[in-house]
Structure formats: C-alpha cells, structure tokens
Write a structure and sequence with these properties.
The structure holds 3 protein chains of 3 kinds. By secondary structure, chain A is mainly alpha-helical. Chain A is built from 15 helices and 4 strands. In chain A, the strands form 2 sheets. In chain A, strands 1-4 form a two-stranded antiparallel ribbon. In chain A, strands 2-3 form a two-stranded antiparallel ribbon. Chain A is globular, with a radius of gyration of 20 Å. Chain B is globular and about 60 Å long. Chain B has a two-stranded antiparallel ribbon with strand order 1-2. Chain C is of the alpha/beta class. A 5-stranded parallel sheet of chain C has the order 2-1-3-4-5, with helices on both faces. In chain C, strand 3, helix 4 and strand 4 form a beta-alpha-beta unit. The longest helix of chain C is centred in the N-terminal third of the chain and has 25 residues. Chain C is globular and about 65 Å long. Classes of the chains: A mainly alpha, B mainly alpha, C alpha/beta. Chains in contact: A-B, A-C, B-C. Chains A and C meet through helix 1, helix 2, helix 13 and helix 15 of A and helix 1, helix 3 and helix 4 of C.
C-alpha cells in the first residue's frame, strides 16, 4: 500500500522534466531536493523512528563529500572507489562515536551531536592543505556509470531521482520489518524495550550508522554533481535544516521527511526574491511551525482537512 | 623568559574572553534552570545589546545612557521571547523547543540584519585606549572593564539568588514547578524574570566586549555556542559552575591557541563538550541526575 | 493500514504538487531579450561586505546612468545580483542561478578570490564571460579563456610592498594572514617573492577571517626579531590586526595589502591605522596625483559622482566601475551580446583608462595592468597620503 504512494510519486517525478525540460526549478533545484530527501529520510530513521536527536548530521554528509573530493582531485582515485572509501570512513567514525554518544539522552544527546558536527566542520575548514580551507575544492571530476558520463542536468536529475526512490523504499522496508518494530519500541521507552529483550544500544547504534552512511553516499554524489565542495555545505546551519525537514513533515513518517525536504528546498529559492528579509522570514516560519504545529506541517494539514470532514479523523502516525 | 612573557599575555586575553563566555554561560544556566530550555538564542542577546548600544550612541544618545538603554532593549527582547515563544510551547518535546530557540536565534539575526544592516561596527571604549603595561604584557583599559564588569555582575546575580525573595522563588521553580506553584509562587512571572535576567547578562557581555571586537548581525552565533559549552563544562543548571566554566574555556582557548595552534582554537570549546558529556555529563560542578522511567 | 496508505499517498502527492505549483508560478518565459542582462554576485554581507557594498553601489549607479543615456546597442542594461556573504558555496549556487534561471549575458563579480575561484569551472563550462573583482593572481594565471579581472593581483601587491621595504632597509618580515582565498594566495606570493628582494620571512602566523582577536598570533610575532609586519588580508580582520598591534604596543612598521583600500578600514581601525602603508589603486588619492596623469580626470569624475550619493570612495567600487565599462565597451565593439564575440572583444581591450590604471589586455594577460598602476600609500591622520 505504501508502495502505491511511492509509485505515484515516482511517476510524477519522471514526468516533470519531460514536460518542463528547461525549467531551472525542476532540473537544477530538483536535484538538490532529491539529495535533501535522502538525507532527511535517513535522519528520520534515527530521529523519528528511534526517537533520538542529532544536530550534527551534516558532518557525515560533509565527510562523504570531502572523501570523494579529496581522493579524486588530490590522489586521482576513481570516483566510485572514493565514494566507497567515504562510506567506510563514515562507517568507522559513526560507529566509534555512536557508543559513547548514544548513552546520552534528550538535551545532552543534542549537545553532543552538535559538538561533534562542529568539530568536523572546524577540521574541514582548518586542515586547508588537504581540504582547501573555507573556499573549498573545485574541479572535482565527473562521475560516470560504466562509461556513461553524468554530465548534464537531466542526467543528474535521473540518477539522483533513482537513488532517492531507492532510499525511500529502503526506509519503508526497514520500518515495516522487525528492525522497525524494535526501533519503535526503543522510541516508546528504552527501559521497557530492554526488559523485553531488545538490545537497545545495538539498535540505536545500527540505525545511527545506517543514517550516517546514507548521508555519506549523498555527500559523495553531491560532490560530483556540483564539482565543488566547501565547508559551508556541511555547517551547523545545514544540520539544523535537516532536523527541520524531518520535524516539519512529521517525525516517524518516511513521506513526512520527503515532504519536509521538498518544502525546505524550495522555500529558500522562493525567498531569494526577498533578499534582505530572507533570514527573518525563515526564522519566523521555523518558530511558528514549531510552536503551533509541532507534530509537523503534514499532520497539521491533515487535522485541518479532517475538521471539514465529519468526525475529525485521527491524524497522528500509527 | 620569552615563554613566560607570552603566557602572561595569553592569560590576559584568556580571562577577558573567558569573562564574556562566563556571562553568556550564566545566562544559559539561568534559563535552563527556570524552564528546562536550552536557549540557542543566548548569543543573540549579546549581539543585540552591543548593536543597540552602538547605534544609540551613534545616533547621538549620551554614551552611558545608550549602554543602559541597550540593556533595557535586550531585556525586553528576552521577555518577549519567553512570552511569545517559550510559554505557548511549554509542553513541547525537547526537539521542538530546541528548534524553537534556534528559530528564534535566526529570527533575531534576520531582524538585526534588517534594522542595522550588514555592516561591521565598533564601539568606543569606556575609558580610552591607552595601553597599560603589566610587566612584559600589555592590556587595554577595556580589558579591565570586562573583567571587573563580569565579576560585579556575577556577584550581583549570586546575591540575587541567595538573598532575595524573588531569586529564591526562581530557584524554587527550577527545583519543582508544581510545588512552587502550590506554595503560591507566580511561576509565569518567575519565568519572565529569568529570561529578562538572562538577556540582561547577555547585553552586559555585549557592551563590555564591543569596544574590543567588532559586531555585526551574526556575531552572536559563535559566542552563544561557546557560552553553551561553558555551561555544560560547569554543569548544566549550575550558574556559578557556568561562570567557572566560561573562564576556564577562555583560558584553555587562549593558551591552546598560543602554544599549539591558533586555527583550531574554536574546536577546543566543542571538544570540551564532547569530553564532558562522555565522561561526566553533569559537568565539573553538577550533580548526577536520575531518569524517571 | 488504510490510514497509513492515505497519509503517505497524500503526503507524496502533496510534495510533488508543491513542486509543480512552484514551477508554474516561477517559470521564466523564454524572452526575446529586450535588455542586456548583467549578472553579478557580490559579498554584500559577511566579513567582506565592505568590498561588495561599494561594488554594488557603483554598478547600480552607472547602470542607471548608462540607461539614461540610451543604453547599449539601443537596449537597456539590466543588473541582476545576488549576495554571496563571501562564501564560495553560495557563490557557486547563485552563479548557477544567474546562468540557468536568469540567463544573463555576462557576469561581473566575485568580490573575493575565494568566491571567484569557486565559479571558474562553471563559467568555463557554460562559456560565459566573467570579469572578476578579486585580487588573487590564480584567477588569471594560468589564463582561462572566459575569465578576466580588473583589480591588481596579490603578486603585484607583494612586489610593491617589498620594494618599499627594501627602500627602508627592512630585511626581516613577520607575515600574518587569514584563511581566505585572497589571503592564502597572497601569502604564497609573498613567500615566493621575498628572497628576490633580500627579505627573510621570520614569522608566518595565521588567523580565521571570522576571528575577533589576533593578540595571540601577534604576541608570538613580538617575540621574534622581525623588523616589520605584513598583514595580507581583507575585510574586518586586518582592522582587528591593526588595532591589536597598537594594543600590544608593537612599534614596528605595519604593511597591509590593497585588500583594505577603503575608508571603512580606517573607520574600524581608528587611530591605530595611522602609519600603515599599503599599495593601492590611484583612486583613493586622486587629488594628489599630478595634473598630467591620464587617470586623473576619470578618477575625479567617478569620485565626485560616487561621493555625492554615497560617501567616501574605495578602490573596490573603482574595480566594479572598470569591470562594467570594459564590459560595456566590449559589447559595443562586438555589436551584439553573443558571448563568444563579447569575450573576444574584452580580450582586445587596449588603452582603457580606468580607476585601477590603464588597461591593455591580451590573450595571455587577462588583467592588463602593470606594476606602475599601483601607488604606494600611507595613512596619516585618518586620511590617505600618496607616497609615490
């Protein structure tokens, strides 16, 4: 049944560039949106389903991006090998960091992930002989699949769309599986889950690592698509944007994360028109939604719609 | 001999910068105590205090009056934050409140950008720029103001919490809101005052350091994060711990920058956060907490 | 189950409807351009804002003037600009937007070397002329087909500074630079050129451009036997360095690069700025030039117009002036906005009297200025004084 939603979504995505092949908002911004979706869906597994918080998720994205960038530009590696190396690097780091960090909860967890994210960011800025410093690395070579180079906007659209759809599918599968139920148990009450025999620590670490790897892959793809990386792509602010995407759409909902990513990708594009007011409006929207619609925009809309239908149907995630 | 000379200079820089962190950290601790909220907009209070002072002064308002008004404006902003953002969301989850205060910090920055523009500004020092020699090291009169101003503010806050009724009432709220309410304390009012006090401290930090560093609309971000680190180091919720944490952080940063590498000095604050949270989450001076099942 | 399906279906459809709606409202109709579109990406906020701000004002002022006089090739100029905050990533994004959404004919910009270097790839790939307003020599060496610039290079600045130091018998220099593209490029040029002027670099400190205190680095410098301090940077950081130098009571001569050639620097550094020497474009000392200097009339005209509207000039606004007029004259010579033709004409710029000097470009030299176009300036009592 979920797959029906996915199918319709995939259809619309496939059709749009055919209808509007020259439209900047589809071919260029669309790619950014797809990347954001993968990131949000991954983070949602950790935040929404496992009930944790991470304010440093952008760090994994950055590590993947820089691994690809550095290995291909400075050491001449094959892009796919570089991406693989990025995955391994992130796997190691997230695994090492996971155990101590995930013993923390609530505010403390938030702060620890925040600290982690910023340390990685500072490292990327400071170690400039390797990373190019604040101005980043450019001329990253293009990615190609068995000799088919991904070198136009439309090709990137197609590739990123496919990876995005796969990641959504992956997320839906995890949630429906026994891992998903274990996650929800942990979310509900860790102590209760432990008493039922679930190794909560292992569950949390696994999902943390999975979402980190998803971010790493996205980072690598991003590096080749932009042919440029800089620390600004993986700053504290970006981590906050990712958290917002997950929360905006309503946590514990894969499609909620999709929705959140879509809105948060297009909103800044729309706000560019407001130049000077952009920052103010963004902050205001964020606050407004979190204060009045904390279960997410989607659930809020759902409630709004059901007010018009008799009986006011339940709108919270199952 | 050379090393000692340099060390003294680092000490001076460290205490100056540490004082600013101490005030910001203290502000964090007060708000956390009162409302269980980690206020990411704390750094913006510093920025607003500094920018208001700069602009009022530039507009012709007498120096001392502009400082006082700047503090008043920031206090108003702090209370508004409590009234319009924190209170309506008092039952929200941890993640929600974090995002709300982050949103507030972005909003305040956006407003600052609109009101004061994108430029960089400085403030005239309180009592001039004559270099003072302290052995092989030098300082500016403003450095002394920062250290002194911080010390006085901290002592006043301590007195407030230890010896005044309002202060003790606020402490009561932080221990147990329901109980405080039941004994007749106006919890809402106490919250408002806490935020106002916190904002006041931020503004004081701002006007103390504005003559030494420059301010622009987003100067509050890093300061906020470091004050945060100070609060964690001292033990989240321990006001005097936060002050100690701030001074320690300032010294560590300064000495680390001098002896090891100046580029990575910002990382020190965050490495501290991780170390503290990994090994002693309650901080240097905090108590261990239990979790309600 | 039914609820979950409806919810996820609804969500999916909503997300995409959102995308479609936006594209309907934002779709730019492909127009037969009635205007000549000049795109610009500048550091209007952030630590480099006192570069981007006068650049924007200059561009706006002169685009208006040109339009009032009838435009170029009978069409009006349209200036489309975005703020980069001095960040390379943002520059990349907005240049992409300028090229693909706004479909500009030519780009003037990159207030900073970092932002310029980040967009060279895309400009070369999309084949659109770019006139940069940044300093690093790496922008034009090695030469790239579509990239030009108007400010003097950091290499020239280093050369000019070392020349002056040699005159004052300074042979040991402490270097302190930031972490931006211009700083790093400048530092590399300094290290490279110093030996040929008999100068030894005895200290090499660095700071982050966003830092607010450099006393630590300067304390280390104070402990060396340096005879002068060279700060290669731009934006607010050099102002802080300058203040810190005085604060630490360091009495050595202090040199800055042309990255601080703006009144804003003097404003921020205050009295500390007195005695600082730097190489700069003649614009800031226009009145002090001899009357037979070919640049003088152009400089005075720009100065008068800018100061009437906005206040004291800075060389950065001047670079924007040069960029705009080189572009406009190239378009006129090309007779069209065809990007390849305009590019060819920009490359053929000869004898253009601008604020930075007299420009003579060539296929190997996409800047066109000589070392003599730089003047050595000292700050005295809060004002610029021409030395030579």
């Amino acid at each position: 049944m979920r797959l029906l939603g996915l199918g319709i979504f995939a259809l619309i995505i496939a059709v749009l560039p055919i209808l509007f092949p020259e439209n900047y908002y589809i071919t260029v911004v669309g790619v950014t949106m797809f990347f954001n979706v993968i990131l949000a869906v991954g983070l949602n597994l950790f935040m929404g389903y496992a009930g944790q918080i991470s304010l440093g998720h952008a760090a994994f994205f950055g590590l993947g991006a820089y691994a690809s960038a550095i290995l291909t530009t400075k050491f001449g590696w094959n892009p796919w090998a570089a991406m693989g190396a990025g995955i391994i690097l992130v796997w190691l780091i997230s695994y090492l960091v996971a155990k101590p960090i995930l013993r923390l909860k609530g505010h403390y967890l938030a702060m620890a992930t925040l600290g982690f994210g910023i340390i990685i960011h500072i490292f990327l800025v400071q170690y400039d002989t390797l990373t190019g410093g604040p101005d980043g690395l450019s001329s990253i070579p293009e990615l190609s699949i068995f000799g088919w180079p991904i070198n136009t906007d439309l090709r990137w659209y197609a590739v990123s769309a496919v990876v995005m759809l796969l990641s959504i599918l992956f997320s839906l599968n995890i949630v429906a599986s026994k891992h998903g139920r274990a996650l929800k148990a942990v979310h509900g009450s860790e102590v209760a889950a432990e008493m039922m025999g679930i190794d909560t620590s292992k569950v949390k670490v696994h999902i943390f690592v999975i979402s980190a790897i998803m971010a790493s892959i996205t980072g690598s793809l991003f590096a080749h698509e932009q042919a440029f990386v800089s620390p600004d792509s993986c700053s504290f602010f970006f981590s906050i944007e990712l958290v917002t995407m997950v929360v905006l759409g309503g946590m514990a909902s894969t499609f909620g994360a999709v929705f959140g990513a879509a809105i948060l990708t297009y909103l800044p594009e729309f706000l560019v028109v407001f130049q000077d007011f952009k920052v103010l409006i963004f902050g205001g929207i964020l606050m407004f939604i979190m204060i009045f619609l904390p279960e997410g925009l989607f659930v809020g809309l759902c409630k709004f719609v059901s007010h018009f239908k008799q009986g006011g149907r339940q709108c919270l995630p199952s | 001999m050379r090393m000692y000379e340099q060390l003294l200079q680092y000490l001076i820089t460290g205490i100056t910068v540490g004082s600013a962190y101490a005030l910001v950290g203290l502000g964090f601790a007060i708000i956390y105590n009162a409302s269980d909220v980690v206020n990411f907009a704390q750094g913006e209070f510093v920025m607003i205090g500094a920018m208001s002072a700069i602009f009022l002064n530039a507009a012709g308002v007498p120096y001392v009056l502009s400082l006082a008004l700047a503090i008043a404006i920031t206090v108003a902003v702090g209370m508004a934050l409590e009234k319009f953002a924190i209170e309506p969301a008092r039952n929200a989850s941890v993640v929600s409140t974090i995002i709300i205060t982050i949103g507030a910090s972005i909003l305040l920055r956006g407003a600052a950008l609109l009101i004061w523009g994108k430029d960089i500004y400085g403030l005239k020092p309180f009592t001039g720029e004559q270099t003072i020699h302290l052995g092989p090291a030098t300082l500016l009169p403003q450095n002394l103001w920062v250290m002194g101003g911080t010390a006085i503010s901290v002592l006043l806050v301590k007195y407030f919490f230890d010896h005044t009724t309002t202060g003790k009432a606020i402490l009561a709220c932080s221990y147990n809101k329901k109980a405080a309410y039941l004994v007749g304390i106006n919890v809402k009012k106490m919250l408002l005052i806490s935020y106002g006090l916190s904002a006041c401290l931020g503004a004081i930090a701002g006007i103390l350091i504005a003559p030494i560093t420059f301010f622009t609309y987003n100067a509050g971000v890093m300061l906020g994060l470091k004050g945060f680190s100070a609060a964690i180091l001292g033990g989240m919720g321990n006001p005097m711990g936060a002050v100690a944490g701030g001074l320690m952080l300032g010294l560590l940063e300064s000495i680390g920058a001098g002896l090891i590498s100046s580029g990575y000095k910002d990382a020190i604050a965050f490495i501290i956060i991780l170390l503290v949270l990994f090994f002693k989450p309650s901080g240097l001076f905090g108590k261990s907490e239990g979790e309600r099942v | 189950m039914y609820r979950t399906m409806t919810k996820s279906l609804l969500s999916a459809i909503l997300s995409v409807c959102f995308m479609v709606l936006l594209t309907f409202f934002m779709t730019a109709p492909v127009q037969a351009s009635g205007t000549i579109k000049i795109g610009s990406f500048l550091a209007l906020t952030g630590p480099a804002s006192f570069l981007g701000d006068p650049e924007l004002k200059t561009l706006q002022m002169y685009v208006d003037e040109i339009n009032q006089k009838g435009g170029v090739l009978g069409k009006k100029l349209e200036l489309i600009y975005y703020d980069t905050s001095g960040k390379a990533k943002v520059a990349k994004d907005v240049v992409k937007r300028l090229i693909k959404k706004d479909r500009v004919d030519l780009i003037i910009g990159g207030s900073t070397s970092g932002t310029t270097l980040a967009v060279i790839d895309i400009v070369e790939r999309e084949r659109i002329p770019l006139i940069s307003l940044a300093g690093s020599i790496r922008i034009i060496k090695p030469v790239k087909k579509w990239v030009f610039k108007t400010p003097h290079t950091d290499r020239m600045a280093a050369a000019k500074i070392f020349e002056d130091m040699k005159k004052r018998n300074i042979s040991k220099v402490a270097l302190i630079t930031g972490n931006g593209g211009f700083d790093k490029s400048g530092r590399a040029q300094c290290l490279d050129l110093a030996p040929s002027y008999g100068i030894k670099i005895v200290a090499d400190e660095s700071y982050n451009n966003a830092d607010t205190d450099m006393t630590t680095q300067l304390t280390k410098i104070r402990a060396t036997d340096a005879e002068a301090i060279l700060n290669f940077g731009f934006g607010k950081a050099p102002a802080i360095v300058t203040k810190n130098v005085r604060q630490l009571d360091i009495k050595l001569p202090l040199y800055q690069s042309h990255g601080v050639a703006s009144k804003k620097f003097i404003e921020l550094a205050g009295k500390a700025a007195d005695g600082v020497r730097l190489p700069a474009a003649a614009l800031i000392v226009a009145e002090q030039l001899p009357d037979n200097d070919p640049q003088k009339p152009v400089l005075l005209a720009y100065k008068k117009k800018y100061e009437a509207k906005y206040g004291p000039v800075s060389t950065f606004g001047g670079h924007a002036y040069d960029g705009l007029f080189i572009a406009v004259e190239a378009i006129e010579r090309a007779g069209s906005v065809d990007k390849a033709k305009v590019r060819d004409e920009i490359e053929k710029t000869k004898g253009f009297v601008g604020t930075g000097g007299v420009f003579n470009m060539s296929p190997e030299d996409h800047l066109g200025l000589g070392l003599d176009a730089f003047k050595m300036v000292e700050i005295e009592n809060g004002a610029w004084k021409l030395l030579y």
